[in-house]
Amino acid sequence: MSDEYFMQQALKEAKKAQEKREVPIGAVVVMNEQIIGRGYNQVEMLNDCTAHAEMIALTAAFNYLGSKYLMDATLYVTLEPCFMCAGALYWSKIGRIVYGAEDEKNGYRRVAGERSPFHPKTKLESGLYGEESLKMVKEFFAARRK
């Protein structure tokens, strides 16, 4: 299976968030070409500011493995992780992160700058399905402003 396939799965999670009137961000955690955690934003539904897609996907993966470390896993997420999620990803020691669109307003780079907040061994890639991911977020906020 490919990065494109797993990012499409993250986009499906983002659509679930969109259907529930949440900011449309989705994430999947993959290990050995198998999805071991899924998540989409549930901040409004759970009344919990930490219920980001990444956090929910990470928790599902930890529970699946019975472990707090994800060194051999990859997180696919539709939008650049925020600084809170970056901290959780750091502590998980996740092996790789692939995100779609950059988040200039709330992404980790706004706080961290060029210094990576992730574990030193974590590989980072961006831009995969970035246009699709950003379009969903922009449409969501445009609809809310009407």
Automatic annotation (TrEMBL):
EC number(s) recorded for this UniProt protein: 3.5.4.33
Gene3D superfamilies xref list: Cytidine Deaminase, domain 2 (3.40.140.10)
GO term, biological process aspect, one: tRNA wobble adenosine to inosine editing
Domain of life, source organism: Bacteria
Catalytic activity: adenosine(34) in tRNA + H2O + H(+) = inosine(34) in tRNA + NH4(+)
Cofactor: Zn(2+)
CDD domains assigned: nucleoside_deaminase
Keyword Zinc assigned: yes
Positions bound to Zn(2+): H52, C82, C85
Function: Catalyzes the deamination of adenosine to inosine at the wobble position 34 of tRNA(Arg2).
Family membership: Belongs to the cytidine and deoxycytidylate deaminase family. ADAT2 subfamily.
Name listed for the protein in its UniProt record: tRNA-specific adenosine deaminase
Originating species: Chitinophaga niabensis
Organism ancestry: Bacteria, Pseudomonadati, Bacteroidota, Chitinophagia, Chitinophagales
